[in-house]
Amino acid sequence: MFGWKKRRRRKLRARPFPEAWCEILRRNVPYFSGLDDEDQRELLGHIQVFLAEKPFEGCGGLEITDEIRVTIAAQACILLLHRETDYYPKLRTILVYPHPYVVRGQRRDEAGFVVEREEVRLGESWTHGAVVLAWDSVKKGAADPGDGQNVVFHEFAHQLDAESGATEGAPVLEHRALYGPWARILGREYARLIEDLEEHRQTFLSTYGAVNPAEFFAVVTEAFFEQPRALRRRHPELYEQLAGFFRQDPASRG
């Protein structure tokens, strides 16, 4: 079965990429133009596989179009470049709302009482089954590839994290020996972010990364791809860990 899957994916990657999809990439995903020719070709192949295997569903009255599918798939597949990948194996569907959406949830307050509240979300990733995205937030995040904010990178980083069996900021690494440095460096940087916030010091990384280690990994993934030079300058060991995991060096591009 696995050999059949590999052959099928190889055929999908070899298909001519539709010109209409290329135009969507040029218009909506400027990050694509910053890749070299080899990476662009690899990415186009990954997009073909992703779109053949992952269904999209419109929510809140949104009709799914090729623009939506290609724009999201391209950004999700940027995280897969240069790596052996099973194309987000736990992901079964991508749910897309037209705008940020409201989720009703529960939390425990300081007194220990469970209270209900509503949250406005741009996206979320479920450990098994789905990624949920707000389309206008997807477009905004893609339009400026240097602002450090990209909801697709963020939520699909959670999918990579979940491949280890738990979403805890530790994705599957290539060798067992890599987990020690990963835990030490990311743990130290996570603690540093929390300390900076407690001491009211300005931080380069988004404060949302202090919520938990899983959100920290998603936040630093956004920074790695969108603000790589600044991340390498301010957090060199953190950058090195991410470069090893993603097998990319975006700070050296351009």
Give an overview in words.
- The protein is α/β, with parallel strands linked by helices and 254 residues long.
- It has a domain at 168-254: Collagenase (Catalytic Domain).
- The chain is 50% helix and 14% strand.
- Strands 1-2-6-5 form a four-stranded mixed β-sheet. Strands 3-4 form a two-stranded antiparallel sheet.
- A hairpin with a 5-residue loop joins β3 (101-108) and β4 (114-121).
- α3 crosses α4, α4 crosses α5 (135-143) and α9 crosses α10.
- The chain is globular, with a radius of gyration of 18 Å.
How do the strands and helices of this protein lay out in sequence?
Blueprint: H1 2-14, H2 19-28, H3 37-53, E1 56-58, H4 66-78, E2 91-97, E3 101-108, E4 114-121, E5 123-125, E6 129-134, H5 135-143, H6 151-162, H7 179-198, H8 213-226, H9 228-234, H10 236-246
Parallel strand pairs: 1-2, 2-6
Antiparallel strand pairs: 3-4, 5-6
- What's the count of strands? 6
What oligomeric state do these chains adopt? single chain
CATH superfamily of the domain at 168-254: Collagenase (Catalytic Domain)
Average pLDDT metric: 93
What is the succession of H and E elements? Answer: HHHEHEEEEEHHHHHH
Helices, by number, come to 10
Choose one word for the global shape.
Answer: globular
* First-last Cα distance: 41 Å
Radius of gyration: 18 Å
Main sheet specs: 4 strands, mixed
The helix content is 40-55%
Note poorly predicted spans: none
What name is given to the CATH topology of the domain at 168-254? Collagenase (Catalytic Domain)
Gross CATH architecture of the domain at 168-254: 3-Layer(aba) Sandwich
> Which structural class do the helices and strands define?
alpha/beta
